[in-house]
Amino acid sequence: MERIQSYIKENAKWVHETLDQYTLNLDGVPETLLESMRYSLLAGGKRLRPVLALATTEACGEEKEKALPFACAIEMIHTYSLIHDDLPSMDNDDYRRGKLTNHKVFGEAQAILAGDALLTEAFGLMASGAKQAKLSAETALTIIEEGVRSSGARGMVGGQVIDLLSENRPISLVELEKIHQHKTSDLIAFSVRTGALLSGVSRETLQALTRFAYGLGLAFQIQDDILDVIGDQELIGKPVGSDEEKHKATYPSLLGLDESRKKLAEITEQAKAELLDSDVVNPEYLLGIADYLLSRDR
């Protein structure tokens, strides 16, 4: 576990430093807007999605440097979603990653615009990354098209809408899984698929990696739900019990803690089996990330 933690930390640092330099070099951005964008983008976090993009590229036998711009773009999309999720009109959270949320520091209007800017810049970064890597037009456009699908109305944004509409009413486990498939897993799957597409894997390998990623995304969300009940507020960076306070359906509220833990372990093993049954060249780090997420405490 120590080895995979070092791998995640090293690659997260690489992504962080690249995002820092990239945003510093953005010309013509109003100072307050740039400060707001960087406040949330550089606030830390697990950097799971960009690390998965890098690790998948490496697992498929390609140099992970090729994936770096795309990994950073994915983190920009993720950060935009967090800024907007925290707004009073949505989850109304005061803290994120142990710091005041963006709108608490810069105001609601500025937070909305910072999120808008990060989302827009992300697709520009993907385009420049595609040119830098000399990708074929088909590969570049496929990645950008999938980025739109996974982060937009048919993916993450759509999942957030269903989540909001599900508050204060009983929902089934099937409905809850649908919410998290879009709200959480779609962007995780996009991260893995981006690494695979950059590496030119076969259709069968891409499908296996996609199944692995969706399993990983669901496992990640179940553990998030568990930590909201029993986690350490100092470690997770926001108050525990917030889901219950907002009357949100979660895996523990539907299944109980013990069954949620059991489901978490089962889904993680199923995801790993998909990877092991594929012809991925070097699955070690991806398998390690799956095990790390199973036992994480933040």
TrEMBL record:
It catalyses: isopentenyl diphosphate + (2E)-geranyl diphosphate = (2E,6E)-farnesyl diphosphate + diphosphate. The lineage of its organism: Bacteria, Bacillati, Bacillota, Bacilli, Bacillales. Its EC number is 2.5.1.10. One of its GO terms (cellular component) is cytoplasm. GO terms for biological process: terpenoid biosynthetic process. Belongs to the FPP/GGPP synthase family. SUPFAM superfamilies: Terpenoid synthases. GO terms for molecular function: (2E,6E)-farnesyl diphosphate synthase activity; metal ion binding. This is Farnesyl diphosphate synthase. Its cofactor is Mg(2+). It comes from the Bacteria.
